[in-house]
Amino acid sequence: MGSRPVTVRLARWSAEHPWRAIALWVVFVAVCFIGGNAAGLNEATSADQAIGEAGRASLIVDAADFDDPAVDNVLITSRGGALDQTAAKAAADDAAARLRTVTGVAAVGQPVTARDGSALLLPITMSGDPETASDRVQPLRDATAALQAAHPQLRVEQVGGPSIGQALDDTLGKDFKRAELLSLPVTLAILIIAFGALIAASVPVLLALSSVAAAMGLSTLASHLVPATDTTSPVILLIGMAVGVDYSLFYIRREREERAKGRSGLDAVEIAAETSGHAVVVSGFAVIIAMAGLLLAGDVVFSSLAIGSILVVAVAVTGSLTVLPALLARLGRWVDRPRVPLLWRLTAPRTGRHGEPRAPRLWPAVLRPALRAPVVTLVISVGLLLALAAPALGMKLKFPGMEDLPRTTPAMQAYDRLTAAFPSTGTNHVVAVRAPAEQADRVRAALTDLSTRATGDPLFAPAEADGPKIEVSADRRVSVLDVATPYSSRDDRSVRSLEKLRGDLVPAELRGIPGIEYAVGGSVADSADYAKHVRNKLPLVMGFVLVLTFLVMVFTFRSVVVAASSIALNLLSASAAYGLLVLVFQGEWAEGLLGFTSMGAIVSWLPLFLFVVLFGLSMDYHVFVVSRIREGVRAGMPNRDAVSYGITSSAGVVTSAAIVMVGVFSIFATLSTIDMKQLGIGLAAAILLDATIIRGVVLPALMTLLGDANWWAPRFLRQRPRVAPADPPASTPELVPVP
Question: Which one of 157, 194, 337, 519 is at 20 to 30 Å from 621 when CA atoms are compared?
């Protein structure tokens, strides 16, 4: 017993002591979840997220400790034609009187008229912490709604950072709530179709949800080492549901196959642990390695995503090796109850004449070209995938701006009217300067000259009547100038204005002042600097993931060729996904179909994150399929028959797992924001390509073509204690007839 693999020993103990194993798992999940909530979440600060020159500008501004209260606005415009200035002024006076009595309002400013007379803007300064202003803005919105009712001939709207923040929080909250509500029934429905039995379908969902709950608690604890961001929890849910369901599927399908051969419940669990359990461990380790690559990005967002993903994968693997065997042993044949009559007939495990699992007739038909003409099949399929990947060479990276937020809310519609009437309230560059206090007057003069030169350039917004906006800290060491551009943050002219500031205007005015430090930030700078950061870090992360994954695959399969082909196929899959993303989102043809407005680029953080997620999740399928092929080879099958056996015997579980992932990821494509749409489409498309073309066409063609060379390795790698598969078939003459 002691020499048996650890996966088998764990499974046997859990199967022999199911109630203990289940109780320990419940306690583990509860302790993690409750402990995490008790410890509290440590969220990343702006200093943690500072990247490039834009990050330096943000740190300089933060060091000034400005009294920077939250400011919202009442925007008054006409419902058609020219604005009646008298009526607008009366409405502004009424608004000022009403809002001064509203709780949370510190001050009401003087109304400002747009240069073209099309709008009147009344600024409102809010009291309290600016970070929580969006949570406290509702009384202001209610007062503005009452004001609108009192002045129906005008359009009176609340618009500004707090109002937009509340509207966006409401929209995203509804989006994610809908995604969570949809993902569970979609996953359960797909699993019911895959298993044809309700209990068998419920077990993977329970394991995935408990893994997510435990990982949420652990990630909260880990946030005190690596600060968390607001994207950590959604990603834990996304990855946790994907791998938790996958690993359970691998395990349960193998256990059912062995019971269909007549084995006892305990023997079936042991064999599943020895085969699928081993594949789960290798797959989980590959996913963890891929996610660990994000830590090399030197970015708190990626680091928090890496920690959360690693924790949920580790918990899911642990659950698959411990509580899952206990549940299967305790349920026995009850796992196949209650049966869905028609679905059960279609999905019940069946074996061929030699004991091998029989796949649907579709898969032998799909495999036939790859086995009969591997060279032609390989050239055509790889050529098509490379053609799909080609658009990725023209990928552009940008952060979504205000113009990329959904326009379904009144706050965003009002924002468009605000920026049209007051261009300087739209996209701003922030020139942050730190210098000795005695240089403050010289810095102010230089910034004033800089503003004058900028406003004379068509790349920048016209000068405001009240002069340049220069803010100086109490100790006179930090000065900040806002330089507006009339273009949206994703417009190429905004990028050119940033380049002109950084390369010409700012150095020309500020260079030579003793002890000076300066940087140009703002939303355009954030986007440009982050895109540069991702491009610089992507080769490092990719290299780390590729090298370590290669070593894991060599160690697992004792084959250099299998490891190299694994890397090549996953790179091909990821490249095709990149190309598809560019085709869909950098153009405009899919806007109506998917409900978005093209930003002409891919979200800056997506390529790096997408690569590690796809590389990790793709290894799930690859390890499982190649493990089944190796079973056939070790049983003495000819290479071609072993490839046929491996693909067809794993086809059901790989297809089911892929459909679950595609279904869940596709839900994210229905969310309102462009980054979630791109993430959902990218993941869903890549998994679909990987589970069909890569695993069903390219992989069998390549392994058939290579023959015995698949298993070549240097002599020092060849010796390994043999883990005998669970009575694999001696041959598979009925799977795919090959002449």
Answer: 337
